[in-house]
């Protein structure tokens, strides 16, 4: 094989890999609000926290649901960050749902990666969804926005 062809092929593969990596980085942790999605719920009606975790209840003002899995390397850091942010906001509940053995739930709620976060209002209506590990600033902004709209 010609060295020029090999070099061009390698350069092309590197360019494609870089472009895909940058696209993935841009889309990970992005916030999608319910208004952006054409509605506030995934299924008709509100999300029942008891169906996610037995005995779970909605927060008085809001609920943050983190979907994680056993193999998720970013989930523990997101869990710690969420714990801090929720403790600073009375009336906000936090639920951590392990999807490792709950494929049915992942399919029904369209969770394609972990962590995925749902921000629910006091009625259980989905207001924001974050796929991937969010930044502290993005999560703080979304929580504060949700609490202000009450």
Automatic annotation (TrEMBL):
TM region(s), chain numbering: 6-23
Pfam families in the record: Thioredoxin
Official protein name in the record: Thioredoxin domain-containing protein
CDD domains: TRX_family (cd02947)
PROSITE patterns attached to this UniProt entry: THIOREDOXIN_2
Domain Thioredoxin stretches: 42-148
SUPFAM superfamilies membership: Thioredoxin-like
Gene3D superfamilies: Glutaredoxin
InterPro entries in the cross-refs: Thioredoxin-like_sf, Thioredoxin_domain
This protein's UniProt keywords: Membrane, Transmembrane, Transmembrane helix
Organism: Rathayibacter tritici
